[in-house]
């Protein structure tokens, strides 16, 4: 049975590009995992409000939305490798520049441009995977991709552990991670897929034809960045919180997403994407809503963050698997771009809404946000339960 499972996995992941894209995703995840808490902690030290921290963190989403719309056309004209690596170099430059100013408007501009660069990598590597793996293995392959990013997320905060957040060093190191992410992609320059794109990414296409997928995007995107960008600052401003949680909660979340993605994919293949998505959404969001009440206990807080974030992020992999069942050929690239656009719009709105709620009540703000977004997803999924019963 074990040998059969290994052979099955091997048949799904032997396509050219799978290994290199995953390696690049690890480096990209390390940059994300270190950068988001880094700027949150640095801005908190400058006495910036939760709302403004959330807005700055979420502004990159606008850049990613723009790049998601145009990335299919850019890849068509310049190729996957050139477009992806240009984006990574741009993001690396913006990462370093952020530390050289304390001007709020300039911060917003820098985060926007950095988002443009990151979006090119994100959309096109997922589109690349969608063109080289079989439909049978797509759920597990996307889970492996999400696991690679999560592994990087777990490593990224070590930069803050080692060098703090007040110096230039961590900003330069995270920029270096982004440049490292370009190297595996460059090795694939002779094996780019030849895809005929069907236009730019449109979230309306996804909302109209696959509203459950779109709602999974909203939940995963809104909760993901809200937790990563605001929880470290929430810990710093909670008197009874264990100080070590400022730098350990985000890695705990990353480890949860890294270790739970593949088991979730196996469950989804066995019991159905829709059914499993409802279970992990309700359970994961309930756990995340408990984080503010256990900040005095390192073990309990990290355990809740581990399972809560890991389960919620499973919606991302499941959403991509659902998407692959509704769209094929060149259309899947445009649909995936729409998926990323919706995810990033949620990234923009999630931290902003959660930040406002935390400014109002630091203890109840996060639970109210989690319960509200969870109710939204369960309602949409229940209403669409008969639309695609094969999910």
How would you characterize the largest beta sheet?
none
State the CATH superfamily name. MFS general substrate transporter like domains
| H and E order | HHHHHHHHHHHHHHH
Query: How would you sum up the global shape?
Result: globular
Q: What is the CATH topology descriptor?
A: Growth Hormone, Chain: A
- What structural class do the secondary elements suggest? mainly alpha
Name of the CATH first level: Mainly Alpha
Strand content: under 5%
Number of helices: 15
Whole-number mean pLDDT: 82
DSSP strand count = 0
Distance between the termini: 26 Å
How many domains in all?
1
Rounded to an integer, what's the Rg over CA atoms? 19 Å
Q: Which stretches are poorly predicted, pLDDT < 50 over at least 5 residues?
A: 1-6
CATH architecture: Up-down Bundle
Give the helix proportion (percent range).
Answer: over 70%
Structure summary:
The protein is mainly α and 391 residues long. The protein contains 15 helices and no strands. The chain has one domain: MFS general substrate transporter like domains (Growth Hormone, Chain: A), CATH 1.20.1250.
